[in-house]
Design brief:
- Helices cover about 35% and strands about 15% of the residues.
- The chain is of the alpha/beta class and about 375 residues long.
- The chain has 2 domains: about 150 residues, Rossmann fold (3-Layer(aba) Sandwich), CATH 3.40.50; about 160 residues, Glycogen Phosphorylase B (Rossmann fold).
- Strands 1-3-2-4-5-6 form a 6-stranded mixed β-sheet, sandwiched between helices. A 6-stranded parallel β-sheet has the order 9-8-7-10-11-12, sandwiched between helices.
- It is elongated.
- It starts with a strand and ends in a 6-residue tail after the last helix.
């Protein structure tokens, strides 16, 4: 895929895995800066990491106006520059969605260090071939999850989502929920409505779905009532726990599986009460912040990136703590519904980060 947003663009965007959060970021930049875009579909991630440089060396057009090369670390940047010396002169911005040296592997697999090694090589390009790094901690475009919604919006908007039906050709502009839900203390009707728990992550082992479902099965065994939405994208070989969990938790399930419609996805998040992460590998967590922006009470591991974003009251240290927190909220769902989450999602909006990106991607002549 190749496209240009204007004549003689100064920025070249290259994405070897154009899907999910990778696609979110590329689409956002393409909408707001003058650029050329070269991408590959989000399929067979391992092959993209191994062969994308060769592909792009043959498909990226020669363009004397290019001054900046932006890519994610799926691409082996060293290989691309070696195969296309004309790109060596460009300022380079390398975005790391995740660290392949610590990515969890399945028990029956040994780590393939080639992917982490590729990241190291790309990072260690000689100084005269400048590499900059975008600030992973400050951008809502991480690796991962059900990526249907795009929270980074246009330059003049804050972080915006819509919980209502809208014209699909219009930009969603609903404000984040900042006030407690209109529930009075001890409202009988609200107490009868079960807690709605959402798990909006990729159906892969690094998200530890086994821990999540084992926790919910314990809640069921304790005769606690709750509703469940399991969203997120499914790939070729999802963990075996999913069909078994669906069978065991069937009467609790409201939504099951990937929702390709952004509006439908956001509607579920706006209807849910609690969002849970059981991830064993997370460098940002878009899905969690999207759910919080829609008003969900978050429960996250006290590990990985989460303590950098979420206050301590939303973190758990052990599976037992997660179970106890959910058990308490199942018995008092109004606590989650009345709570105002202490996370400022607007700080991750394009309007807040625009100037930093413009500086990062400013054209520099050699």
């Amino acid at each position: 895929m190749q496209s240009e947003s204007s004549a003689a663009p100064s920025v070249l965007l290259v994405e070897a895995f154009y899907g999910g959060s990778h696609k979110q970021l590329i689409d956002l930049l393409q909408e707001n800066i003058s650029c050329s875009v070269c991408t590959l579909p989000a399929k067979k991630w391992h092959w993209r990491a191994r062969t994308a440089a060769l592909h792009f060396s043959q498909t990226i057009p020669t363009c004397p106006s290019h001054r900046v090369l932006f890519c994610s670390s799926v691409l082996n940047l060293c290989e691309l520059v070696a195969l296309r010396p004309d790109l060596a002169r460009l300022k380079k911005v390398l975005y790391f969605h995740e660290n392949q040296l610590v990515y969890p592997v399945r028990k029956d697999q040994e780590r393939d260090f080639q992917y982490g090694y590729n990241q190291i090589l790309s990072w260690l390009l000689p100084e005269h071939k400048l590499i900059c790094r975008s600030h992973v901690d400050d951008i809502i475009t991480p690796q991962d999850e059900q990526e249907a919604p795009r929270l980074l919006s246009s330059p003049d908007e804050s972080l915006t989502v819509s919980c209502e039906q809208q014209d699909p050709h219009q930009t969603t502009t609903a404000e984040p929920r900042t006030d407690p839900r209109p529930v009075s203390e001890g409202d009988p009707e609200d107490q009868r409505r079960p807690l709605h728990i959402v798990w909006p992550h990729r159906w892969e082992h690094d998200k530890d779905p086994e821990l999540f479902f084992s926790t919910l099965i314990k809640l069921k065994e304790r005769r606690l009532d709750f509703h469940l939405s399991v969203l997120g994208e499914t790939f070729t070989d999802p963990p075996e726990i999913f069909p078994e969990a669906r069978r065991l938790l069937d009467r609790h399930i409201l939504n099951w599986g990937f929702l390709p419609s952004k509006d439908d996805y956001l509607k579920v998040l706006c209807e849910a009460d609690v969002v849970v992460s059981t991830a064993r590998h997370e460098f940002f967590g878009v899905a969690m912040l999207e759910a919080v922006h829609c008003g969900c009470y978050p429960l996250c591991p006290k590990a990985l990136v989460y303590p950098e974003i979420f206050p301590a009251e939303y973190l758990y240290s052990t599976p037992e703590q997660l179970c106890k927190r959910l058990q308490s909220l199942c018995r008092r769902p109004d606590v989650a519904r009345r709570h105002v989450v202490k996370v400022d999602t607007s700080s991750f909006s394009w309007s807040s980060l625009k100037e930093r990106y413009e500086t990062l991607l400013a054209a520099q002549r050699p």
